Amino acid sequence: MSGEGTGYDAARIEVLEGREAVRKRPGMWVGSTGERGLHQMVFEVVGRAVNQVLADGSRSGFVDVTLTSDGGVRVSDDGPEGSFQAAGDTGGPDLEALLTSFHAGPELRGRHITDVGQFRAGLFVVNALSSRLTAEARCEGVRRAHEYARGVEVVPPAAVGPATGSGTTIAFWPDSEIFETTRCSFAVLAERFRQVAFLNRGLGISLTDERPAGGVRAVSFRFPEGVRDLVATLDAETGSGVQPDVIGFEREDPRMAGTMEVALLWTGSREERIVGFANSRATREGGTHVDGFRDGVAATVIAYARERGLPAADLDPRDDRICGSLMAVVSVKLDRPQYLGATGGLLGNTEVRDCVGEAVREHLGNWFEEEPERAAQFVDRVVRCVHQD
Q1: What's the CA gap between 22 and 43, in Å, rounded?
Q2: CA–CA gap between residue 45 and residue 48 (Å, rounded)
Q3: Cβ neighbours for 116, distance < 8 A, ≥ 6 positions apart
Q4: Which residues pair with 147 in a beta bridge?
Q5: How much is the pTM?
Q6: Residues 6+ apart with CB under 8 A from 284
Q7: Which residue, among 277, 294, 283, has the nearest Cα to 353 in the 3D structure?
Q8: Residue 126: closest CA among 187, 87, 91, 75
Q9: Which of 47-61, 288-302, 318-332 has the largest mean confidence?
Q10: For residues 240 and 238, what is the distance between their CA atoms, to the nearest angstrom?
Q11: What are the phi and psi torsion angles at 50 (to 5°)?
Q12: Integer distance in angstroms from the first to the last C-alpha of the chain?
């Protein structure tokens, strides 16, 4: 079809760049202009704060999120860095660059990144889609502030007073010209922040809502046992009434260029509930880390049953019923995660399967040896379940 026939040629092509491109097609950057996109805006800012706090590996930082009474969202952290302009080789871009440019330079990558939201659009997108945004940095005893309107600077960075400690505070007001709603769901945000706290042992996250007419409501999360606490909580939420006996371990494996944290619990139910995460992102379709976990459990159960003379000779390691009464969380953090599919819900790193499977066989096998009575109960239950079916 020729340009002459359609009346369309190169002169009609509109090239959008920077903030104009973001504001013209906001759904490309945050997923939608509805509540889901609004929450993604919050997750972008919180994700940066979490990664700042975890950057030094202390596992003791805190992120405070407030839904303000005037429709804004304020996110504060006590991260080690809090400067608008990077001094020397900081290993990443400065805050002003992140707020004003797509191409701000290298960011933290790999296992050190916590993916709070579905995407990683960056602070520039949040700035462009906010009617107003203020940023405050605390560094070397000085508090500096900056302000924008729809991504355009209205107040340049300037010292506004003394500061105690370090960190940043970013407050933004989603643009009502862009979003169908500017009211965040307290429940949705609280559930995701709780999950992030579980997956990053020792990290503290609080959420405060100043909007209710009946008064402020707030929740705060910090879990010193990480995914062990998550499994115990999931079990308690099922109302099983059984005292949880959570088995868990953490391990680094250079073969997969990352770390794994695994926790599991045999429940009274015959339903399997195995939840996987990669770099704190939920892998709802599973992946090699979940496959490796199943491999390890099956191999351990079959080996133990055979050693004890239980009728396990005909058990198939691929039989899903071996994990039928398990509740487990498998969390990996990788330098180079590879996701399959458009939604990134399936982890594809092939080496992860063997690494996780080997670690599960070792740690679960050791637990079986240390707790023979309980191990016998669990294995016998699995064998009877498989043979009854």
Answers
A1: 17
A2: 5
A3: 43, 44, 46, 47, 50, 192, 196, 280
A4: 134, 155
A5: 0.87
A6: 345
A7: 294
A8: 75
A9: 288-302
A10: 6
A11: -60, -45
A12: 62
**Contact status, residue 310 vs residue 300, Cβ threshold 8 Å:** no
pLDDT in tens, 183-216: 999 999 999 999 999 999 989 999 999 999 999 9
CB atoms under 10 Å from CB of 240, counted, come to 14
Contact between 263 and 331 under an 8 Å Cβ cutoff? The reply is no
The DSSP output letter for 61 is -
Tokens 């092939």 found at: 350
Dihedral, CA of residue 261, residue 277, residue 219 and residue 56, to nearest 10: 60
Residue listed under structure tokens 């990352």: 258
pLDDT of residue 373: 86
Helices (H), 72-140: 95-100, 123-128
Token code pair at residue 385: 């379940």
Residue with tokens 């979940």, as numbered in its chain: 290
Q: Tell me: pLDDT of 38 over 70.
A: yes
Q: If you average pLDDT over every residue of the chain, what do you get?
A: 86
Distance CA 27, CA 15 (A): 18
Six token digits for residue 261: 């944290």
Q: Does the pLDDT of residue 317 top 80, yes or no? A: no
CB 276 within 8 A of CB 287: yes
Three-state secondary-structure class, residue 106: coil
pLDDT at 362: 97
Which residue, 356, 359, 368, is CA-closest to 266? 368
- Please enumerate in sequence order all residues whose Cβ is within 8 A of that of 49, keeping only pairs 6 or more positions apart, or say none: 63, 75, 76, 77, 79, 168, 170
With beta carbons less than 8 A apart as the criterion, state whether 191 and 174 touch.
Answer: no
| 343 — pLDDT class (breaks 50, 70, 90) | confident
Share of residues in the chain with pLDDT > 70 (%):
85
Helix (H, G, I), strand (E, B) or coil at 93: coil
Whole-number Å distance between alpha carbons of 125 and 150:
10
Tokens of 51: 């990664």
Q: How many Å separate Cα 335 from the centre of its chain?
A: 15
Residues 6+ apart with CB under 8 A from 120: 44, 47
- The beta-strand segments (E) located in 163-203 are 167-174
